[in-house]
Amino acid sequence: MTARLVADGLAGQREAIAVLQAGGIIGLPTDTVYGIAVALTTPGGIERLFAVKERPPDKAIVVLADSLEQVEVLVEVPDLGRRLAYRYWPGALTLVLPVRPDARLPLALTAGTRTLGVRVPGHPTPRSLARAVGPLPTSSANRSGNADCRDAGSVAAALGQHLDLILDGGASPGGVPSTVVDCTGPEPRVLREGAIPGSEIARAAGMAEGSSAGGAGGAEEAELR
Fold first, then answer.
1. Is there a contact between 195 and 178 (Cβ–Cβ < 8 Å)?
2. CA–CA separation, 106 and 189 (whole Å)
3. Number of compact structural domains in the chain
4. Domain holding 13: CATH number?
5. Is residue 115 within a helix (H) or strand (E), and if so which, with residue range?
6. CB neighbours of 90 closer than 8 A, spacing ≥ 6?
7. Model pTM?
8. Which residue range forms the structural domain that includes residue 47?
């Protein structure tokens, strides 16, 4: 059965919230490309996301949230991460932060590490859903290694038989993904340079003029949009 396509609006979002609360997987628009998401509390939900994407389990999944306050339920946010969040959220910045000792997260979510990639996106729909359901484990709506989907029809064609509902928000901006920054150390470390240049991250973090946040080329370790 192919997933239902519903228009992205208040009525459609109510349907998506009901599907998520019932343990289903949805397709949704974001400020980069279309994604697929599941409620964090769904037993086996992360594993199902991996299966839908045919993706190896050693790659972490980003969590989209409604606010910094919601993020803080899951991770510890040091001063460095807080400065970057204040500057760039909502927006195209994914922060990799230490998981809170008291946070009970599925092992599959963090690929066996004690860090988590989190983002408050610039698109209102994932924020609205996260506000209602809680932080949303989300990955790009494509088979692992295939092209990103930039509209609901493409999501339906690629993954529709494995999803329960797709929110049709029109064409997504696509293009450049979020910049991914590791904030677990004393200085920011750019794992993937995207919409925000590393030099700008360095300035926002208060590093010396002329310096840049060092890159580790770690984008292959986590498909974070």
1. yes
2. 25
3. 1
4. 3.90.870.10
5. strand 115-119
6. 31, 120, 121, 122, 127
7. 0.90
8. 4-221
